[in-house]
């Protein structure tokens, strides 16, 4: 395994964790120390009473002999898991940092998560949103009290940096940050606590913060469990990265073809990549039709509203079982439910 | 207050409970002893690991200064709260009784609840369903391993009795039974444990088993809380009963006008009526349009699929606040999510 191009420190070797087969997880130097279960347990304390401790929902409707449980993160106050990481990050800032104001770049669930968490701390949040985003996403963010700055899509990452430099704002990144990873990892801790005999945990992959945190917790709490990422075929950069053994990037033109608007990030983050190559057993892809079909199953059989990204893991369980490890107990993380009502209606009547 | 027509015993006076204003709850003889919190706590032990212990979901999208929490019972394995009562009832039977086989009359959620719970005990269940029920409801019941007997609607209550007499089956009634009431009451115990400072609990009313159990628990655990039932205007028999001070009945032709197919029972049961008149502060009604609008809000803002019956309480909170007691913290019990996908799609695009 080749070290990353700018490695600066050696990772701690997670002593209680089985390395993923074929990968010498602790033998190379790394960009950053990996997040630990202790970081995640501390995050659990911080987010208690803010994020919902979601139950594991049995899915007796799923075919086969195994048991499927859905982790319904669309039930969070902003409709997605992102509140866990954003709140943990903002809680870890000093009062002085929060008083300077926060900035984030997102047109999706991270925008609402930062706006929601900032409001709880009485902090001002500025969200940079591409001017191509649909008006209801802007409205959802402003309704939570955040300022919105609309920018051309090409400037969505440079404008926040400029606001940090010029206005003194503190950046809340969407995934490439240990506090964000630890916050999302609380899902993994809950899974480990609720079903310690879990065999397989399925997690959607975009920037990689979610699967990084979950895999960190699960691999310590349930050393025999496998953690497998799920991506759309049309945005399969992380699956490609894992196969190649190095972090690859797709183009926005490629990843924006998928209906799963939460999974269009063109590459996993630097810190997530370190966690993924250490802890994640595999990443598989599902088709657009499979995602739509799983959305319908989750509504009709599971009574859960998912956005396309949130249905990807259930799609993998239902339609790509032959590419998954054998498992008696599987958890599918359903990451969010912020879906255009017209799309949902189309999915309901269209299949 | 007039005693019921066939009173046979005196109720225990629930000493820790404040009587509902204007009603001398403990001064009259009753048909049956009321279910107690101890019965409900025992039911909690029985259903643990079978029914999901549903979280209270904050609803920051609800307008006004108060806090609304939704109790999402559509997340139960069969998509509705009914699993709580049915499982508790069947668990309380002797092995010999369960071996005789179970019978229930229902075309809805009770059918699936009995089928699901019976299967867990390895008991045979026979469900009597009106031959006018849609095929997917029959299919949902048979897929859980139950035998289905289709009968003309007029015979839906007499055929189960005949099966009890001729075949030795044990009847699992939908609401008029203390074990069923205690099982549904576990929702109230969970509410009392999770938000002891609750001011108002909104519960849909059909046969009355759900509100009976919930009110019993809430009035002990949170003596200052109000419990208010919600019915469709087109099936407002319980609201009328509470106003009249006696159990009244509507006709099936009347109650079948409502879209809320889970709330069409023509009269509350005998045992539920005793609990309602003792513990329930008020019952209000909502319109068909309000129910549909609340279904849409619950999908879009709450990411929850409700059947019309399950949206009635949220409709009351959103659109009939002027008829509810003042409250800082309100819980709306969303009872179920077994809805025709075409209806749900219509609700999504139609408003």
Would you kindly provide a written description of the structure presented here, covering whatever features stand out?
The structure is a homodimer of 351-residue chains. By secondary structure, the first copy, chain A, is α/β, with parallel strands linked by helices. Chain A folds into 2 domains: 27-80 and 177-349, Rossmann fold (3-Layer(aba) Sandwich); 82-171, Rossmann fold, CATH 3.40.50. Chain A has helices spanning 37-47, 82-92, 95-100, 109-120, 135-142, 158-167, 178-194, 209-221, 237-244, 252-255, 270-279, 288-300, 308-319, 341-350, and strands at residues 9-10, 29-30, 57-58, 67-72, 102-105, 125-130, 147-151, 170-171, 200-204, 226-232, 282-286, 329-334. In chain A, helix 2 crosses helix 7 (178-194). Chain A is globular, with a radius of gyration of 19 Å. Residues 1-15 and 24-29 of chain A have low confidence and may be disordered.
């Amino acid at each position: 395994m080749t070290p990353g191009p700018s490695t600066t420190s050696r990772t701690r070797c997670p002593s209680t964790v089985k390395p993923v087969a074929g990968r010498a997880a602790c033998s190379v130097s790394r960009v950053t120390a990996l997040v630990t279960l202790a970081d995640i347990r501390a995050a659990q304390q911080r987010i208690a009473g803010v994020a919902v401790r979601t139950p594991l929902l049995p899915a007796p409707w799923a075919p086969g002999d195994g048991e499927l449980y859905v982790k319904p993160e669309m039930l969070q106050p902003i409709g997605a898991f992102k509140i866990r990481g954003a709140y943990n990050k903002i809680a870890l800032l000093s009062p002085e940092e929060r008083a300077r104001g926060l900035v984030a770049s997102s047109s999706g669930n991270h925008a609402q998560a930062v706006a929601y968490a900032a409001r709880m701390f009485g902090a001002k949040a500025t969200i940079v949103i591409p001017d191509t985003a649909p008006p209801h996403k802007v409205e959802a963010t402003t309704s939570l009290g955040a300022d919105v700055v609309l920018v051309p899509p090409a400037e969505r990452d440079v404008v926040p940096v400029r606001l940090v430099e010029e206005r003194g704002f503190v950046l809340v990144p969407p995934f490439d940050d240990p506090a964000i990873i630890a916050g999302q990892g609380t899902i993994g801790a809950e899974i480990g606590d609720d079903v310690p005999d879990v065999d397989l945990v399925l997690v959607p992959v975009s920037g990689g913060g979610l699967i990084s945190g979950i895999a960190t917790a699960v691999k310590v709490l349930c050393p025999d469990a496998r953690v497998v990422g799920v991506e759309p075929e049309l945005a399969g950069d992380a699956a490609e990265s894992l196969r190649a053994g190095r972090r690859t990037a797709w183009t926005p033109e490629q990843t924006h073809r998928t209906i799963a608007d939460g999974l269009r990030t063109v590459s996993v983050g630097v810190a997530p990549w370190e966690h993924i190559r250490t802890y994640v057993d595999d990443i598989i892809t599902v088709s657009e039709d499979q995602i739509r079909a799983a959305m319908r199953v989750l509504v009709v059989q599971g009574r859960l509203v998912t956005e396309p990204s949130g249905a990807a893991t259930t799609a993998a369980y239902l339609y790509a079982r032959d590419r998954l490890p054998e498992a008696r107990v599987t958890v599918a993380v359903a990451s969010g439910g912020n879906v255009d009502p017209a799309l949902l209606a189309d999915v309901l009547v269209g299949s």
